[in-house]
Amino acid sequence: MVLNFERIGPSIPYILEGIQVTLSYTAVSLCLGFFLGSLLALCKISHIAPLRWFARFYTSLFRGTPLLVQLTLIYYATPQLIGYNISVWEAGILSFTLNSTAYLSEHFRSGIESIDKGQIEAALALGIPYSLMMRDIILPQAIRVCLPSLVNESIDLLKESALISIIGGADIMRRASIVANEKYLFFEPFLVAAVLYYVLVLMLTFISARVEKRMKQS
Known about the structure:
Oligomer: single chain
């Protein structure tokens, strides 16, 4: 086996530019999924039956179908269904957000249900509105409880963002593929891509560990 990293050396900065694209998809989708997932979790524990049914159906739909299928459906079928030429960026953010919302909602739900119900009863007895109780008392504790699960979902989303290369997103994986086809070398550029993803995951793990430590101390 002969490796030739010198031939792809000039192209490595081009691959590195994909880090920004990868992180942008991950960060935006995670923030939106975090917000929508918390709302969906509240629907799952709601006393309103239609909200519970919708939340359960939504979760089963997006957890029961591959993310690649969701991405390709949104990107290729949207122009056919509604006549709107959706961009790669919009399709990626929409599909990653909808998918992460389903998974994050389950993490939030389990976190909320792990909180002692006596706290909810005490807050209601004190006349605290339900929305304020959830925002200021229950959800902060639930986030701390399910933080490891949230970190795992963030890591999964970071790695799954590589699927955006399928529809032309200029992320790390897409740029590595372009370099591989130009140089007729495949092991070297994809190895660079693998190392970049590994480093990003390590950085995310380190940051989450520091955040978890700070939360435990507080």
